[in-house]
Fold this protein.
Amino acid sequence: SQQGEEDPQALSIQEGENATMNCSYKTSINNLQWYRQNSGRGLVHLILIRSNEREKHSGRLRVTLDTSKKSSSLLITASRAADTASYFCATDAETSGSRLTFGEGTQLTVNP
Amino acid sequence: GAGVSQTPSNKVTEKGKYVELRCDPISGHTALYWYRQSLGQGPEFLIYFQGTGAADDSGLPNDRFFAVRPEGSVSTLKIQRTERGDSAVYLCASSPLGQGGAETQYFGPGTRLLVL
């Protein structure tokens, strides 16, 4: 079963705007990662945040983690048309060993 | 260096046939993972290898699915008596140490399997 749930399911914005995607999960986790996927093929790792971290930045990406609410958000600032993709959060639960459990993803469309 | 590669990129087969999907991980990566992704869904975990052994195969849906990694590098996912419901993109990933969610998993481009 899917641990993570992203919202919104789909997001359409204009170039230059910020995009915020949210992820909620059910069980206690060790780490949470965000991945990007173009055209339904391979996933590309974006950022990893550990359960004892609250915020992390990487370039135009900002990820927050609230373990009390079991939620995370991914913010992409100054979006570009090339950011158009599906974005997934993935968690490794404390009880699930090394497997990653992915949410259903947010489809982001950035219009030029 | 080369990333994770998967062959074939597309596979069309008939219901009831046997298929093998191959994954070449990044050289030196200890851990190898197989996931399955249906249209509009996130990837679902199938099996994880640490070296040659399957450390966690709890995601395999039934005994028609089997995977091997005999020399700790290349892995093959085998599906017997394929069913239409097996149609999906099969993704392989590898990571350096097998620390699960504590390290980046590097994904291949996937094999798109279509069972007619």
Q: What stands out?
A: The mean pLDDT of chain B is 94.
